Structure formats: structure tokens, C-alpha cells
Amino acid sequence: MKKILVVGASGQIGSELVPELRRIYGESNVVAADLKDPSQLAPTLVNGIYEQADILDTERVAGIIKKYNIDAVYNLVALLSSVGEQKPQLSWKINLGGLMNLLEIGRELHFQLFTPSSIGSFGPATPKDNTPQDTIQRPTSMYGVTKVAGELLCDYYYKKYGVDTRGVRFPGIISNVTLPGGGTTDYAVDIYYEAIKKHHYTCYIKAGTYMDMMYMPDCLKAAIGVMEADSSRFIHRNCFNVASMSFEPEQIAAAIKKVIPDFTMDYDIDPVRQGIAESWPNKMDDSCARAEWDWAPSYDLDTMTEDMIKVLSKRLLNK
Predict the structure, then answer these.
(1) What are the domain boundaries of the chain?
(2) For residue 183, is pLDDT > 90?
(3) Residue 180: pLDDT band with limits 50, 70, 90
(4) Catalytic one among 143, 157, 201, 299?
(5) How many whole angstroms separate alpha carbon 301 and alpha carbon 255?
(6) Using the 8-state DSSP alphabet, how is residue 215 labeled?
(7) Which of 118, 157, 303, 304 has the fewest CB atoms within 10 Å distance of its CB?
């Protein structure tokens, strides 16, 4: 059975990926690792194997990989877009320093390495609609810069050293479990919490601003799917576009109103996050992922909205 390490396990994706991997591969075969003390973490992470580690500590991370004979590493450590604009030097250090450590360890220990890229790797010059797999990437955020550099680093280490690097370009991720961590697309999570608690939301992204989004179950499906794929079919390896739905604020509000009829929304635009959003595509073309490893999402806006409101209402209102 495959032995798996998830670094950055306490983040938005990691906190849900770890339980899903343990369900598939067995609790004893999945190691969660994060910088945080175990007392700060959810039981779903620390009830299984947990190792406290800083991804920038090469010796510590290599020791964990050797200790558990790890076959596959999911690298989920990153500072997200709006946080990265506040701390660009730290964003570079963490996002690329951690990746470089894992790539160097991978040269010696020969494991699969998943590192997600992002819609943020694109920029204002990128075609907005049906953004191709292979196109111009000139991002204007430090987060985007680190993601483009990460894609290239992973390609380089695969071609030069044979490290089995794999990845996808995620859109905005919407979760009913973990609160968002400072991304431009966070409004599409916040809006559901506010709709349930207050029946009103003040949106920081302008009406008419389209962005690709994905529900967390499809995010996990994409991450696991590309790692389990037959790489002999790959043409692209470290930056597959994956898409599920594209919408603007008025459309998500309309979907919520189908379930919560008295929901209302107004706007207070955040110029930093609005600027980042406007530099990103409206919708990515994911035909390469579909052709090369049979990617297909399971959720659209309406089915996601129904599930989000059902799950969050039970938790927030005990309904």
C-alpha cells in the first residue's frame, strides 16, 4: 500500500485531504505534517500519524520521509494571494523554499511529489475565456509569481533528475469545513456563512467579475486523480488546468436565493483583491486534464450551493 505524507496538513485543502487519503489508503499509511503544535489541530489530523515540522527544515522533512518510507508527498504549504501581497518576501521564501527542499529530497529518495499551482499563475495578458493549457503567464501578484516559478521548477526536476512531479492549476476552492486563509476567491466561501447567519453579505469583489471556482470534493478528486494517473499518458505534468464552474457574485447570490429566498447582498470593494481578480481568467480550458487522465468534476454551482447550505446550516444553526 502506498505510504503518503501531506505537508501543510492544517490548511484549507490539507485538513480535508488527509481524512480522505486515510479513508482510501488506511490510517496507518498517511502521515500529516505541519508547523503547528498538535494541540492547535483538529482531531481528524492528530488522531492518525502526525509530525510537527517546518518545510524549510530540510533535515527534519527528509527524516520523516525516511522514517515512514514515504512513496508520495502532497506539498500544500503556501501563503495565498492577498496574504502574499502583504508579505511578498515571506511568500517567496515559503512557497519556493519549501518546494525546493522537497525537490532536492526527491532526487535522493525517489517519491511522487504533488505541488498545486493556481489560477493565480495567470495574468492580465492571459486570454480571459477558455484560458488554454499552454498560454502566456505574466502574473502581477507575488503568489502568482511563485506559482509560475514552481511549475517551472517541477518541470525542470522531472526532466533533469527524473523526480516524479505532478500538479494541477486549482481555481478558487470552496469548502464547508475549513475557513479560507487569505485568498482572493474567499468571498465565495464567506458568502455562505453570512447567508446562513445573517441572510446578508457585503461582497468585496465587483459584480460581473468572473472567476473559476471548485467545490472541495472535486479539489480532492483532482489532487488524488493526477497522483494515481498513468503518467505514460501525460503530455503536461505539473500544471494541468482543472475547472468545475465559473461565476460572478450576482450568480452565486442568485443560487443562494433559491435556497434562502430573503438573502440580500451589497458591495464594498477591496481594491487589492479586486485587482488580483481582474488579472485572472474568467474560465480555464481543462481539456488536457480530461484527455490525459480522465478528469471530470462532480459539482456545479447549484449542486454545490445546496450541499454547502445543508452542511453549514446543520453546523451553525443545529438544523
Answers:
(1) 4-171+214-241, 175-213+245-283+299-317
(2) no
(3) low
(4) 143
(5) 7
(6) E
(7) 303
Q: Are strands 245-247 and 211-215 parallel, antiparallel or unpaired?
A: antiparallel
Cα distance between residue 251 and residue 212, in whole Å: 13
Q: The domain at 4-171+214-241 falls in which architecture?
A: 3-Layer(aba) Sandwich (3.40)
Is the model's pLDDT at 254 over the cut of 60? yes
Same fold, 4-171+214-241 and 175-213+245-283+299-317: no
The pLDDT of residue 258 is above 90: yes
**How far, in Å, CA of 33 to CA of 54, rounded?**
9
Sheet holding 117-118, edge to edge: 117-118, 168-170, 240-241
- Inform me whether the pLDDT recorded for 204 exceeds 80: yes
Q: What are phi and psi of 294, to 5 degrees?
A: 65, 35
Rounded average pLDDT over 7-36: 95
Instruction: Check if 143 is active-site.
Output: yes
Q: Which fold has domain 175-213+245-283+299-317?
A: UDP-galactose 4-epimerase; domain 1 (3.90.25)
110: left (phi over 0), alpha (psi -120 to 50) or beta: left
